[in-house]
Amino acid sequence: MNDFEQLYNIIQSRAQERPEGSGTVKELDGGVHTIGKKIVEEAAEVWMACEFESDEAACIEISQLIYHLQVMMVKKGLKPEDIYQHM
Ligand SMILES: N=c1c2ncn([C@@H]3O[C@H](COP(=O)(O)OP(=O)(O)OP(=O)(O)O)[C@@H](O)[C@H]3O)c2ncn1[C@@H]1O[C@H](COP(=O)(O)O)[C@@H](O)[C@H]1O
Description:
By secondary structure, the protein is mostly helical. The chain has one domain (3-77): MazG-like (Helix Hairpins, Orthogonal Bundle), CATH 1.10.287.1080. It is 82% helix and 0% strand. It is built from 4 helices and no strands. The chain has helices at residues 4-17, 23-52, 55-76, 80-84. It starts with a helix and ends with a helix. The structure holds phosphoribosyl ATP. Phosphoribosyl ATP binds next to helix 1, helix 2 and helix 3. Phosphoribosyl ATP (PRT) binds at residues 10, 14, 22-24, 45, 64, 67. Belongs to the PRA-PH family. GO terms for molecular function: ATP binding; phosphoribosyl-ATP diphosphatase activity. Its EC number is 3.6.1.31. Its main location: cytoplasm.
């Protein structure tokens, strides 16, 4: 289990170390357009899970949305502090 910043650090280290077989590396290599599509897809899955499925299913989809948002943050060079200042 990871919190927001732990997951961010894992994604950032994947970007730097580029281990073989990493889904994160593949997604980062797809670029902003590809990552953006994953965000939109996961956002829709969050909506559907919250409207029609269990709380657990909603939590799974929300965690996946956060992952893809963080992949975008790393791709853009944005750090958690850059986001926090707007919260
Ligand atoms: N938290 C996540 C995470 N959340 C979601 N995803 C990926 O995001 C996609 C969402 O799942 P879905 O079932 O909605 O996807 P799908 O549409 O069936 O999948 P695709 O066909 O699009 O791949 C899957 O491809 C998941 O692998 C994640 N992939 C990785 N992580 C964490 O990121 C870290 C690094 O992962 P790797 O880079 O793969 O080592 C690890 O600690 C993982 O726990």
